[in-house]
Amino acid sequence: MIVVTAGHVDHGKTSLLRALTGIDADRLPEEKRRGMTIDLGYAFMDLPDGKRLAFIDVPGHEKFINNMLVGVSHARHALLILACDDGVMPQTREHLEILSLLPLQSLTIALTKIDMVDAARVDEVRQQGKALLAQYQLHTDQVFAVSSVSGEGVAALKQHLEQLQEDASEHPAKAFRMPLDRAFTVKGAGCVVTGTVISGEIRVGDMLYSSAQQGMLRVRGLHSQGQEQQHATAGCRVALNLTGTDHHRLPARGDWLSAIEQPTPCDRPVVALSTFSPVSHWQSVHCHHGGEHCLARLSLLTDSTHNGFQLAELILEQPLLLAQNDTIVLRHASAKETIGGARVLALDVPSRKKRSDSRLELLSALANCQHMSDEVELLLRTTAMQKQALAWRWQLNERGVAMLVLTQSLHAIGDWVVSPPLYQQQQQLLLDTLASFHEQHPDQPGVGLHRLLRMAHSTMPDAVALAIVEDLHQQHRVLKRGSLLLLAEHKQQMSAAAEQFWQQILPWLSEQRSPVWVTDMAEQLDMPASDIRPLCLQVVQQGYLTAVVKDRYMLTEQLQQIAEMLRQHFAEQPELATAEFKEMVGLGRKVSIQLLEFLDRCGFTRRKYRANSRELRDATVFAASLVESGGRT
């Protein structure tokens, strides 16, 4: 367990820790010379049960507020120091504002320097401290009046700190994550980094990802709470001896270590703002997250505060490595005061409709969620999510992801997870789109998967879409004909007349190298063209014929052969000129263009902008099966 100090400069934070632990947390020569804490200091106190309590001593001067923010960024227990000779001072207020933005489990007030004032003054400062806490809707476990010089009240404060409840045991599903606040080299040991474990656990021998290193790092040694250990859990102060570091860029304050692979840092997070005073659109602010610090602009999504927060985007000048519900402390551009805090709600921003009512409602509901399971359920209503993104966003290990899939009955499809409501919604969307396609194009036997997804405006990834279609196929609601999909109820048997027509015309069609007109077939069979058109439609519905243009047909098998030639060409060349295609198929220019435009309509190829050439769009169209690879655009 870790307790952080807070309070104005020269109010006796370091002296009180020395009286409690016997350790001087000021380690820098400049700190000892000036008698003032400049950077973070650390002290440890043995507890009766054999465990150790760690203290982080933070600077109280306004010039070193950045260092203070690094120390308290993930605090759960705090000790507010208030000197009786001064009372409430500027940094007392600002430190308390910062603490009010954190999910503290306990807050204790220590009234120091009581040996310098009378009892009335102590009571007066006690009331000032309680009134100040009320302004920020905080409460204290207890207030202690102490003197670091005489030792009065120190024993009672120490007993209180010993009885603080340890942080709730970390859920086994959480992955290790830690921001670095110090990094240095020890002769004979190499790189050593220190920080506070904010989730998961760490053991000697573990391999870790670093935000500033290319390869993974191995934990060669570990100290927890100031003692050599084999493992440490969330809420512990640790020092790690790492191997495998890049000597051209050693770890530094602000870097992150994690047990799961880290994504690309986020430069535009969506946040829920909680501010102490109104903010304006495009206001410049300082952002503090872990040991990192950068400038940003506030892009407000809502005009006013609702339910205690305001939705906004942070346009960061330097990307930050963020996870769901991380707290970002915001300070004024002048770096003179704290504006408030921002809780991370989303790590990506849509290119369109980011202020739509539906999206703002989703973000507001997300900001009001109290549990991870509720957040996951809410987000998976509208989108599929990769397991890796799910793991990072909520800092879950493999076991945690598996438990989440099981408890929420999610569909696990390859690397993706989909909620049952969204899965069913996408199934119905594809069925409705297929029905609409059959109604609009009765002369076409079906549609390719990726063209169907484009028509449905579906955002499902290929793996999920294939699983949905396969499920519908297993339910006999969708049929596959080669690479084409069609509804089961559209499967029709040819009439006797159509069967007879097909047997008569097939040998002749097999000899034709180009698409043939209905009038040509009528002349060949000596039948009226008006009688042949409905017969051709039945053959088309069986997938044997394909209408290249109205009243002009070609064997589907021949089209598949042409598509295979084009696939081989595109495997070697990025584009295909019309003249090349004409030479490839050995047909005239007019019919070649008709074939190319037909392939464009089917989604197999696409005409390049302002050019007389094509590029491959969807290789699965006219393929033998749906499982062939090929992205859609």
Topology of this protein?
Elements: E1 2-6, H1 13-21, H2 29-34, E2 41-46, E3 52-57, H3 65-72, E4 77-83, H4 90-100, E5 106-112, H5 119-135, E6 142-145, H6 154-162, E7 177-186, E8 190-196, E9 201-203, E10 207-210, E11 217-224, E12 227-228, E13 231-233, E14 237-243, E15 256-258, E16 270-275, E17 284-289, E18 292-300, E19 310-316, E20 327-332, E21 338-346, H7 357-368, H8 372-379, E22 385-386, H9 387-393, H10 398-407, E23 411-413, E24 416-418, H11 420-440, E25 447-448, H12 449-456, H13 462-474, E26 478-481, E27 484-487, H14 496-511, E28 516-517, H15 518-525, H16 529-541, E29 545-549, E30 552-555, H17 556-572, E31 576-577, H18 578-585, H19 589-602, E32 605-607, E33 613-616
Parallel strand pairs: 1-3, 1-4, 4-5, 5-6
Antiparallel strand pairs: 2-3, 7-8, 7-15, 8-14, 9-13, 10-11, 10-15, 11-12, 11-14, 16-19, 16-21, 17-18, 17-20, 18-19, 20-21, 22-24, 23-24, 25-27, 26-27, 28-30, 29-30, 31-33, 32-33
Kindly describe this structure:
Strand 4, helix 4 and strand 5 form a beta-alpha-beta unit. 34% of the residues lie in helices and 26% in strands. The strands form eight sheets. Strands 2-3-1-4-5-6 form a six-stranded mixed beta sheet, with helices on both faces. A six-stranded antiparallel β-barrel has the order 7-8-14-11-10-15. A six-stranded antiparallel barrel has the order 16-19-18-17-20-21.
